[in-house]
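Handout, section B. The chain below has 443 residues.
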Amino acid sequence: MGILEETPQPVTLQALARRVSAALADTSLFNVWVVAELSDLRVNHGHCYLELMEKHPSTGAILARMRAVIWANVFPRINADFLSTTGQRLASGIKVMVCGTVNYHPAFGMSFVISAIDPAFTMGEAERRRREILRKLQIEGVLELNRSIEWPDVPNRIAIISAPGAAGYGDFIHQLYTNPSGLRFHTQLFPAVMQGERTSPSVIAALDSIAAGMDEFDCVVIIRGGGATSDLLAFDDYELAANIAQFPLPVVIGIGHERDTTVLDYVANMRVKTPTAAAEWLIARGENALAALRRIGAEILQCATDKIAAANTQLAYLDSTLAMAPAAALQRASSRIHNATVSLAGSSARLIAPQLARLEATATSIATAAHTATRRALDRLEARTSLLQALSPEATLRRGYTITTCNGRAVTSISQLSPDAEITTHLADGTVTSTITSTQHHN
């Protein structure tokens, strides 16, 4: 036979628990400060039960998890201190630095008993995360994009992102539509989840819907009523902040209370403290535009009134002077005529005398020139008459020549005559009629 193996000696679970408790009695596990994220927080009979988690910074995978408890004898104090310092109550999703002791209970297992929480760490962590997001947006060059968009004079077509039925949305609509100036606004609600893990993707989806019909709107208003500050942690989100920073319409943020601040307040075009304040801001812009129109109208009215008053004054003056105007005009005309007559009488002698002298001289010159021209014309006429008489047919006949005509025309060639033709011969003292018997050409 082989050697018999020794049978292991089991211990009871309770004994094992005692050993674990003894091992955890190490003082190094007392009053340990731990950084973790709160999860599954609930309060029961004054005790606060929760889990502490550590997640991978990039992937979000859970690296460690431990059950924790804050007993009722210290929880009210810890919760009140945390609220007064950070402005929010302890809630799931908050990153904290807690002080506690690792404890093992045979019936309930291991847990971390919290005795203190440092609120300053949570505030610093939230601020660090916010600054990290803003720095990333600054590097990408989009931080100031939405804040640089110019507003229309009267933004009255408003796209609203809010939770349907939320008190903040109701306050906004009531304030907007009951404004004392009677300004008219067109609003359309784009529903979104405004709390929890679905906040960012839900609001981004609403922004996408608005962008698809952005020509129908002048601005976007993202509103959420008050509540615990921890409820606003979802708005400290890079993707949501980047979408708002690059949105093509001006965005108004009205989330939470006066003391609440999220990363969206730094990237949106306008930040107001509450949904009601958002409505008041929009109403104020409309009232400013209305006041400007009223000022312009008043200036136009004053200008027209001044013009009418000046015209009335001028009309009254003309009316008062109209009765005397004809007589005054006649008097002025008579004076001008008299002055002209006197002036004309004085200047006529000076002007007419030289002209009369020149006229007399011209008349004498004209008479002499006419006599000379007439004498010359008569001499030329007499010379031409003598020449004409010397060359006339009568003179030719008197010199012994004759002129023969046939049918009333002078005969200059024998070719004009034919036998039996009757011709007339003109002499100085008479005519002879003859009949042609024959003709003969001379070479």
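Note. The mean pLDDT is 85. Compare this with the example in section A.
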